Amino acid sequence: LVSTMTLLEQTIERLQSRKGDWAEIARANEVSYSWITKLAQGKIPNPGVLTIERLNSYLKATNKKSRVTN
Fold first, then answer.
1. Helix (H, G, I), strand (E, B), or coil: what is residue 27?
2. 18: which residues sit within 8 A by CB, 6+ positions away?
3. DSSP single-letter state for residue 8
4. I need a labelling partner for 33 at 20 to 30 A (CA). Which of 22, 23, 56, 70 fits?
């Protein structure tokens, strides 16, 4: 199946499923905890694509149990 979710939507869903890990995720991706929180809440309307790509790759690589399939 082809996902109709955007990369940003996938990343936010993965991030929301890992709420207890946000501080670690922020450190590993060189962004602030505040930025991660705002992204997960949909309060960053246009985050940088390179940051989202890096974050999404990290979340995929570190959480094989994710419900998102792309």
1. helix
2. 25, 59, 63
3. H
4. 70
pTM, two decimal places = 0.81
Phi and psi at residue 57, to the nearest 5°: -60, -45
**Euclidean distance between CA atoms 34 and 30, whole angstroms:** 12
Q: Two tokens at 40? A: 């997960």
Residue whose entry in the numeric block shows the structure tokens 């094989």: 64
pLDDT (tens digit, 0 to 9) for every residue of the chain, 70 residues total?
556 899 999 999 999 999 999 999 999 999 999 999 999 999 998 999 999 999 999 999 997 554 444 4
- Give whole-number Cα distances, 25 to 3, 5, 15, 20, 53, in Å: 24, 22, 9, 10, 14
The structure tokens listed for 39 are 């992204």
CA 61 distance to own-chain centroid: 12
